[in-house]
Amino acid sequence: MSLRIAALVEETRDGNRLSFHELVNMFQEDIYRLAYYRTYSQMDAEDLTQEIFEQAFRKVDSLHDPQKFRAWLYSIAVNRCNDFLRKRKYLALLQMRTAQEQEFMDKENSMGNEYSDRIEKKRFWDKVKLMLGKLSAMEREVFTLRFMDHRDIKEIADILDKNESTIKTHLYRALNKIRGHSEFFEEFRGAVS
Amino acid sequence: MKAEKSFHLQEEQIISATIDEKELSGEYQQHLLVCPDCKHKVVRLKDELHWFGQKAKEAVPPFSSAVRLPVPKPAAATPKNGWLPFAGAAAMAGLAVFFYFMGPATLDPGKLTIQQSQVYMLEDESLMREISEMVEYPMFEDMYEITGENIMGFDEDFMQFVVPEAQEDFQSEYILQGGLRVC
Which of A28, A58, A188 is facing B52, going by the closest CB pair? Predict the structure, then answer.
């Protein structure tokens, strides 16, 4: 798989846009989810996905090892999301963001048929926000990459440009804090046992 | 029995084992292999986290748009014509240097005077053209009232000065002298 990805990266560098489209098709769902896990907004996550791939396309020549395309793409995505969240925090201070969000939420809620499903999902994300809110920025990032984006320790180390033992330390601290939210994990325990 | 219980993994060790079993010391790794209780705890935590990840994935609304790549840039200059911009820039720099050192200072003063008189003639022509346009297309009476020019009362002498009669200008005189008067 990584050889195929590397070949597509090389073809993109030679000017083949179709190869990059193939890479987009491979990763767009993952990158979109990554953005959603950090913004909790479909509209923002879609915009960010677009921007992330644009940036990747423009800078693909700067990637040293084509076999590390996935980690490279994820690092662009994580940085882009963090930039976005910083800006959103600033805009929220100026009350510029909330109206747009409310408008979107109203539109979403008025769609009717899947209302209860949406309510359930909203409750889930509220709990996730509450739980992740207890973690430091780095613990949150590492936890999200490991258990929501399903990246392994080595890849997380590549994405965040840290060594593996640092990642494990942050992950340990994150899990230690999250275990305090035992009631949140009860519903998953039911699915497990 | 007491000794066996003391060997069970603590909560912190369960977490470490969930992250990476190799993080545990050899003794605890061995214990994990033989103790079904501790193994069950590790597996359960891993499964909870797995199910949490699955639930998160399901709770994400579907991706509804398509990623569009940026429009390709125009082709860069090929090696064949790549020298053109540099040659153009060099020529412009050369001309600038030439005029700086050799240009206006070395021009003949007589030529300068001719050029100046040509400029004045062009200005005169332009003014005359404006005046004749004013004669041909005077403003409406209402416009004069709006602008207040009627109140000022331009008399015949003033108008004669601004717009002289055709036979009094130098061209008509020239025509009269040549015996070719048509009007």
Answer: A188
Buried b or exposed e, range B3-24, using 16+ CB within 10 angstroms: eeeeeebeeebbbbbbbeeebb
CB A1 within 8 A of CB A8: no
Amino acid at A136: S
Enumerate the residues of chain A whose CB falls inside 8 A of the CB of residue B52: 147-148, 185, 188
- Predicted TM-score (pTM) of this structure: 0.64
**Predicted confidence (pLDDT) per residue in A76-114, tens digit:** 999 999 999 988 877 777 655 555 565 555 555 555 556
Task: Dump pLDDT digits (tens) for A110-140.
Answer: 555 567 777 888 888 998 998 999 999 999 9
Interface predicted TM-score of the whole assembly (ipTM), two decimals:
0.82
CB contact under 8 A, A49 and B16: no
Find the CB nearest B65 among A21, A46, A193. Answer: A46
Phi-psi region of A88 (alpha: psi -120 to 50; beta: other; left: phi over 0): alpha
The b/e string for A97-125 (b: 16+ C-beta within 10 A; e otherwise) is beeeeeeeeeeeeeeeeeeeebeebeebb
- Residue A187 CB neighbours (<10 A): 14
A74 CB-contact burial (10 Å; exposed 0-12 / middle 13-18 / buried 19+): buried
Query: What is the Cα–Cα distance from B137 to B121, expressed in whole angstroms?
Result: 24
Q: For the beta carbon of residue A148, count every other beta carbon within 10 angstroms.
A: 23
For residue B52, the one-letter residue type is F
* CB contacts, 8 Å: A124 with chain B: 55-56, 59
In angstroms, what separates the C-alpha of B79 from chain A's closest C-alpha? 18
Distance CA A75, CA A90 (A): 23
